[in-house]
Amino acid sequence: MFTGIIETQARVDRIISSGTNTDFWMECLLTPELKIDQSVAHNGVCLTVVEIEGNFYRVTAVEETLRKTNLNLWQVNDHVNIERSLRLGDRLDGHLVQGHVDSTATCIEKRALEGSWLFRFRFDKAFAALLIEKGSVCLNGVSLTVFNLGTDELTVTIIPYTFEYTNFSAIAAGTVVNIEFDVLGKYLLRRQSLENHS
């Protein structure tokens, strides 16, 4: 479980395909604090640390993960948002994030405001029922508040700190990001669906 509060960024150092899996070697300042078998969110995707060498560590993404997320678009030297899993007793400064990305969204607008940045994203309208105005969404691992919500578009604003310390500074129109919808909304929608079919 995560919170959507990014700790740092990691650089993609190597990408190695093996069958339907892909291994990513990452360089990160937090590597000395990581352990084998630890869960770490990468752009919001929960991946397991399987090998550590100095300041580098390796994670493996399976075919399903590659299909549903933007990991298949990563290139060497890309920077990825990193968050370690939540510990009991930690403050929940964002919202409950599972690290189970639902789909991707595409940036259709990036606009500098006076002291912040506005981003507008288009997503698959099949997920529209999982979003509400002023509700939470996780984009590239960052917990954000939705506004100007449409059937397949949403808007978020980014404060200067988040813009500087996450990879939102590199996002432009056309950039594909990972999106995870609020888990509470998923359970409510599932319950409603079951009740309607009972």
Automatic annotation (TrEMBL):
Catalytic reaction(s) noted: 2 6,7-dimethyl-8-(1-D-ribityl)lumazine + H(+) = 5-amino-6-(D-ribitylamino)uracil + riboflavin
Sequence ranges assigned to domain Lumazine-binding in this UniProt record: 1-95, 96-192
This protein's UniProt keywords: Repeat, Riboflavin biosynthesis, Transferase
Top EC group: transferase
Highest taxon in the source lineage: Bacteria
Pfam families assigned to the protein according to its UniProt record, in alphabetical order: Lum_binding
Stored SUPFAM superfamilies: Riboflavin synthase domain-like
Positions annotated as Lumazine-binding repeat: 1-95, 96-192
Pathway: Cofactor biosynthesis; riboflavin biosynthesis; riboflavin from 2-hydroxy-3-oxobutyl phosphate and 5-amino-6-(D-ribitylamino)uracil: step 2/2
EC number(s) reported in the record: 2.5.1.9
InterPro entries cross-referenced by the UniProt entry: ATP_synth_asu-like_sf, Lumazine-bd, Lumazine-bd_dom, Riboflavin_synthase-like_b-brl
The keyword Iron belongs to this UniProt entry's keyword annotation: no
Reported function: Catalyzes the dismutation of two molecules of 6,7-dimethyl-8-ribityllumazine, resulting in the formation of riboflavin and 5-amino-6-(D-ribitylamino)uracil.
Protein name per Swiss-Prot or TrEMBL: Riboflavin synthase
Native organism: Rurimicrobium arvi
